[in-house]
Write a structure and sequence with these properties.
By secondary structure, the chain is mainly alpha-helical. The chain has one domain (12-236). Helices cover 75% and strands 0% of the residues. The chain contains eight helices and no strands. It has helices spanning 12-86, 91-99, 111-118, 127-137, 140-158, 169-202, 209-221, 226-236. Helix 1 packs antiparallel against helix 2 (91-99), helix 1 (12-86) runs parallel beside helix 7 and helix 7 (209-221) packs antiparallel against helix 8 (226-236). It starts with 11 loop residues before the first helix and ends with a helix.
Length: 240
């Protein structure tokens, strides 16, 4: 097998040509590598934002807007329970009032955002785009914690015995405490939900229609929440 020996360089011009060819080859290789890297990151960014939009569209977004719409109905229902307890109404009357306040249990997820952060995508977003995602997702962990607290406060409210004589003073105090805890929860959730709703609007998130119908069904099943269903329709531009 024959190997060609490299030609000897006879002058500076030939040397410069040889070096130039090598340099051009290196530059082309580096440019191609950078182009591929940019294309790869563009795909990762597009995929990550698609997943965040999906999470907001089919999960967090409809739940956020439902809670904004429900705020007045929940507060009214809690006020009715308090008034009933303070009037020393019969146990059955108080239990009926409590049964009207069946607050939907939701969790608020940030899985897609955390995945984008872990993959380094967030660090490559334009500052304005990153700010919008941060503004929206900053509410989710806090909403989730308050929603969990609300769940246990609601359990305390519904723990009253449904049969027996008049409410004891101890039962009345427990119910009043549960009512005030839930009013506090409602105020905190709605404050954050309104911020999240603004974030959804800034990101022009289109809500999943199936999930929206589920939210509407939850509100129209109970008589106490039906007056707030129209507000939800307005917030989401609902069409059956």
């Amino acid at each position: 097998m024959e190997f060609r020996k490299p030609k000897p360089v006879h002058n500076w011009r030939e040397l410069a040509t040889e070096v130039g060819v090598v340099v051009v080859g290196i530059v082309i290789a580096l440019s191609a590598e950078q182009l591929l890297e940019r294309l790869e990151w563009r795909h990762k960014i597009s995929r990550a934002e698609e997943q965040m939009r999906l999470e907001m569209s089919s999960d967090d977004g409809p739940e956020v807007l439902q809670r904004v719409a429900l705020a007045d109905c929940i507060d009214h229902g809690l006020a009715e329970i308090r008034a009933s307890v303070e009037r020393s109404d019969d146990r059955a009357v108080v239990v009926t009032a409590i049964g009207q306040v069946d607050i939907p249990r939701h969790t608020y997820e940030s899985d897609a955002y955390r995945a984008a952060e872990a993959s380094g995508v967030l660090g490559r977003l334009e500052p304005q785009r990153l700010d919008r995602w941060n503004y929206l997702y900053s509410t989710m962990p806090v909403l989730d914690r308050i929603a969990e607290r609300e769940y246990f406060d609601a359990a305390a409210l519904h723990a009253v015995r449904t049969s027996g004589g008049p409410l004891s003073e101890a039962e009345q105090l427990k119910l009043l405490e549960a009512v005030e805890n839930l009013r506090r929860d409602n105020l905190a959730i709605v404050l954050l939900a309104n911020q999240a709703a603004r974030g959804l609007k800034e990101q022009a998130v289109v809500l999943d229609r199936t999930r929206v119908r589920q939210m509407m069904d939850e509100m129209t099943r109970g008589a106490a929440f039906q007056p707030c269903a129209e507000k939800l329709k307005t917030l989401i531009g609902y069409e059956p």
